[in-house]
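Take a look at the protein record below with the fold in mind.
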Amino acid sequence: MTFLVDTHCHLASLSLEGKAGNNIDSIIKRANKVGVSHFLSVSCTNNEFYKNLEISKDYDNIYLALGIHPLNLEDEPNWDDDTLIKNLKSSNKVIAVGETGLDYHYAPETREQQLPSFARQIAIANVVKKPLIIHAREAKDDTLAIMRSENARD
């Protein structure tokens, strides 16, 4: 049986206003009708993760990822390893770390914050033994260097 997996959606970030019947349930049902059977809803902050976790409780086919996106560092400038690890271990539906990485296109001014944040999240992915979802925009060399130095291969 052939089926599709949406490997990168942001269900907690959808704008559900303005259209009748526009809610998570109707969105999932419409996707199912065209063959999308599973979803990986990516969280870019801890707060977004809590919303995604709540959404996923009603669906066996929604899985989750959590990371601190480089463009969301100002939303959670003081995120801590312990909270991220706790959230990554909070449910068997959490299957990846991310979206994390570097973005020098939209936020070159936060480069010095992005570098250690990305490195810490790779280390956390190694601790919790989950794969990474990496965002890299105009930051290829630094992305690869940090991945090597932090053993992202593991």
